[in-house]
Queue: 3 jobs
Job 1
Amino acid sequence: MTGPAIAHLKKADLVMARLIDRVGPCPWRPRARATPFQALVHSVTHQQLNGTAAKTILGRVKALYPGRRFPGPGDILATPEEKLRAAGLSRAKVAAIRDIATHTLSGVVPTSRAIAKLDDAAIVARLTVIRGVGPWTVEMLLMFKLGRLDVLPATDYGVRKGFALTYGLAELPAPAELLAHGEKWRPYRSIAAWYLWRSLD
């Protein structure tokens, strides 16, 4: 899946080519089984946390619902806030996840089949009306649920930090600077972002 992307990135950007050679192959595997609801809950849980901490909290949330692979919107709304807070979610994240659940039941959050037919801009416009769901949260859904290959989360700290490290900058690039440079990575900016994250390992 990533062969043409890697070939394009290496040809378009020699610095990126060196990073790709150092990191190695990109095992790009979107979480296709996750519903948009699940992907949004996953993204909100990960906001401003490292991956390990977020995974632990999400595991505790899922443990509140024995026998379920993942709670549904109705399960979340029926769970007292204190129980969700005890699992490690902040008050703001509980409010966001409850709003995601409400908007899923009302049809604002599309089904997996419906969202696959929408373009990136339409998905961002539709989902950012939900509390706690900004462009970054939707970008994570586009990349890791839908497997969209041309998403550049320019406000993401890890992507900006990886860019500064890889390109020898003394300070983090502004999102606009990152987006401008990222034009040469089109139509595979998601893969470039993945390599920038890996540059920090």
Job 2
Amino acid sequence: MPVAASPLIEVNPGLMIWTIVCFLLTLFVLKRFAFSAIQKTIDERRERIRQSIEEAEHAREEARRLLEEHKALIGQARGEAEAILTEARRVGDAQRERMREEVEADRQRRLDETRRQIEGETARALTQIRAEVAELTLVATAKVTGKVLDDDDHRRLITDAIKDLDFSVLEPESANQ
């Protein structure tokens, strides 16, 4: 009984040679036409993947740079906002101080004007009192003496009467000093 019962397992040199020739021919055709196209497609895909990775890295770096710029701009905006607030506070304080000074100057001006008016009214009142005292002196003298006096007598009596009166009590304090 033969060892090889199946014709597929049986060693047949002609079939082996033809199998090797077909294999080599198929290998040559595949290598010549299919493998290069497949390798080219694989290389192209590998290049696209590499470019996509590089673009992703570039995009990541760009995003990181933009984020840093954004943070810097926010910091700069905050600094500018603080500077604006500081300037506004300074201007507000200066305006408040100027307004206070203007109000104080206006108050002082009105106070001085009121003092001048009071001094003027006091001077007019004193002049009027002196005139009335002189008139009363003339009337009292005429009644006491029973005669009408001439102009020289009037002046002398008025001067004597006014000289004896103390008007310094009625004058403002600034005039006494």
Job 3
Amino acid sequence: MPEKITEKDSAYRHLELMPTADILSNINKEDKTVPLAVEKALPQIEKLVDAVHEKLGNGGRLFYIGSGTSGRLGIVDASECPPTFGVGFDVVTGIIAGGDAAIRRAQEGAEDNLGAAWKDLGQAGISAKDFVIGLSASGTTPYVVGGLYSCKENGIATGCIVCNPESEIAAISDYPVEVVTGPEFVTGSTRMKAGTAQKMTLNMVSTAVMIKLGRIKDNKMVDMQLTNNKLIDRGTKMLMHLYGWEYGQAHDRLMKLGSVRNVIINYELGITN
């Protein structure tokens, strides 16, 4: 089995003796390498985005499966899709080993259960219309390995985001993404560079897919949910910019029709009341 680069010894020694300024400077130096690692994986990310877009464009759903930090990052990305892009809450779903309790507290041993992810996906009604992305810094997490193998056996398309080369999870996946971030500042603490890389990649995947699904107009979130005053204000100002309306007029139209997109559609149809 290839060496896990994410587990290699840190390039820095005696961290407990470092002044605060040196700790922060060295962490920052390591963090600067992450976007370059993501850049090298762009061709793989492109293939993953196009595959996910095809599934969602045909009515399928996207699932993220992972444990620990990786699982939590999948949940964060999934939870932000409905308010940002106006999609249903079941279009993108994050599943973490150990269930919702693991979001706040580590569930010891949950990630070692090979059959648990498939059970969790089954409870969500997974089908061949859907797409599953496995998240694992190491590329060897049993929870993710088992879930992706079961998907393969059941004709479900898969991808992954891992941070070691030539991992088992990448070998299983139809559309692997390998963002090789190297040893961590604190040896083995993959919530650092590896977690940052996975977060950046998830941002790319979900945002690009939603753009391709038509959930963005120009560069604006026209389908965002108007769930607080900040977002209502943002939507109002979008309409002011588009049509030269006064704030009150734009605000009233937005609140009446419920989304920036609905206002735009009505305006283009000549409906003004």
